[in-house]
Amino acid sequence: MSHLSDALDSFRCYKDKDIEVFLRTKAFQFIDKGWCSIYLILDEQEFDEGHIKIEAYFTLSHKSLITEGISKEKTKKITGGLKNAETLHFVLIGQLGKYIAKSKDAQTDESNITSDEILDYAFEVIRASSSLIPCRFALVECSANEKVQNIYTNCKFSKLQNDDDHYQYYKKI
C-alpha cells in the first residue's frame, strides 16, 4: 500500500488543482462511500522497474438527470425513442485528469498520455461493463473552459445542457 500512497502523493496537475486534490485526498473517501470507481493509468516503463507513477486517472459512476429543460428530441435520442421520459440515465465520467507538474525552469513536465487516450481507456471499461449493467450513453461535466469543452467535442461528445456550474456533454456507448 505504501507504493500506492507514494504514487498518489506524487501526483500533480498544476493546471487544475481540483484534479490533483481529488486524487490525492478524496479518492478513498469516494470509493468507501460507493460513489464511484477510480481507474489509474500507470507509466508502464516505471511499473516495469518496480515503481508506480500515475500518468492519468478517471472515475466512473452513474448519473440520472431529470429531463426538465432537455429537448424532447435529445430525450428521445438518449432513451431510444421515449420522448416523454422523466429521467435519463448515464455512465458518468466524473473526473478525468493527467499528470502535469511544473518543473523548476517553469516549463511543464507533462505525461505523454493525451485526453483522447484517457477517454479511450474509460470507454474500454464502460463497454466491458455495459453487458452487465446496460446503459446507452456516457456523460461528462466540465467547466466553461473552452479548451476543455473542445476536448469532448473533438471526441464526438454532443452538448446536452448547462447545469448551473457545469456544461454537460454526452456520447453514445
What does this structure look like?
It is built from 6 helices and 8 strands. The chain is of the alpha+beta class and 173 residues long. The strands form 2 sheets. Strands 1-2-3-6-8-7 form a 6-stranded mixed sheet, sandwiched between helices. A two-stranded antiparallel sheet has the order 4-5. β4 (100-102) and β5 (108-110) form a beta hairpin. The radius of gyration is 17 Å and the shape is elongated.
Mean pLDDT: 90
User: End-to-end span in angstroms?
Assistant: 34 Å
Biggest beta sheet summary: 6 strands, mixed
How do the SSEs run, as a string of H and E?
HHEHEHEEEHEHEE
The tally of helices reads 6
Task: Fill in the keyword field for this structure.
6 helices; 32% strand; single chain; 173 residues; six-stranded mixed β-sheet
List the helices and strands and how they pair.
Layout: H1 2-10, H2 17-32, E1 37-42, H3 44-48, E2 54-66, H4 72-79, E3 87-98, E4 100-102, E5 108-110, H5 115-130, E6 137-142, H6 146-154, E7 158-163, E8 166-172
Parallel strand pairs: 3-6
Antiparallel strand pairs: 1-2, 2-3, 4-5, 6-8, 7-8
